[in-house]
Design a protein that fits this description.
It holds the Pfam family ABC_tran. The chain is of the alpha/beta class and about 325 residues long. Helix content is about 35%, strand content about 25%. The N and C termini lie far apart (about 70 Å). It binds adenosine-5'-triphosphate (ATP).
Amino acid sequence: MLKQALITILKTKAPMNLVIEGLSKTYPNGTQALKGVSLEIPTGMFGLLGPNGAGKSSLMRTIATLQDADAGSIHLGDIDVLNEKPKVRQVLGYLPQEFGVYPRMTAYQMLDHFAQLKGIKNAKERKATVRALLEQTNLYRERNIKLGNYSGGMKQRFGIAQALLGQPKLIIVDEPTAGLDPAERNRFHNLLSEIGEHMVVILSTHIVEDVTNLCRHMAIIHKGEVLLKGNPREVVEAAQGKVWKKMIAKVELPQHQQQYNIVSSHLFDGKVIVKAFGDECPDESFEASIPDLEDVYFSQIKAKEEATNAQIPNQIQE
Ligand SMILES: Nc1ncnc2c1ncn2[C@@H]1O[C@H](COP(=O)(O)OP(=O)(O)OP(=O)(O)O)[C@@H](O)[C@H]1O
């Protein structure tokens, strides 16, 4: 019975792609949060990577039918997301950035309540579904603990359990691992990757490691624009021979930032390792470094920042 319920939860008919085309959004205060975003997101884990304020939540909320766009389209399979909101809500599981729970209810009571709201009326079916989800998210043993006493990681796993109710075809998780300790993060990663085998899972995050570890496809977004998209491994391969590193004293950092295209700096053993990005080795004081996704991410963000800053004087002249 339990196994059957789990299979039912995870079963999807045909794989569904999420296709976003030319999506734009400007808030009433004039902030342009999305500027013509286009993405094709297949079944599996998709990482949407960007710093704070990049536009990730705006995009997630629009896909989750919680806010409207000014222009563009979103299709999930044959569902027109912007114009068929009730249909989307039937196949959507959403774990928002701020996920509120009733602290005095136990996980079991709350999930049972959510299951009723999702329309699972049959008590026997609901019991099996709730149990299967608590098992899957590794919370069954803690099912009778009040949610107010859950740790951050347990709350996030509970958030996934509620998002999985109703056999979703699309799961959206917004910044889910912020604030989790390494063990909890690891557990959460395992859970997400298991789910990602069966449906479209969009993971919005500013934590590069989450995307490296989990995602088959990704995009980097900043200032409302998609800067790069692809497979994380291929994206990193394309940066081979372009990352250069050097160890310096802390006091030398400002001068290096001025002189070279430094994309990141990490403290190491009381010193600083700086990394520069470029086709040529900056000079003989640098050595070649094996690139990783963080190098690519920082170089993209920096290039975008510089391009935006370079535009400002032109705008003033006009
Ligand atoms: N309701 C709103 N009204 C006005 N501006 C908004 C609103 N929501 C977001 N913004 C602005 O839109 C831009 C994108 O914000 P968004 O929350 O989508 O980014 P984010 O990548 O999710 O960042 P964070 O991780 O900090 O939430 C930011 O400049 C933000 O200040």
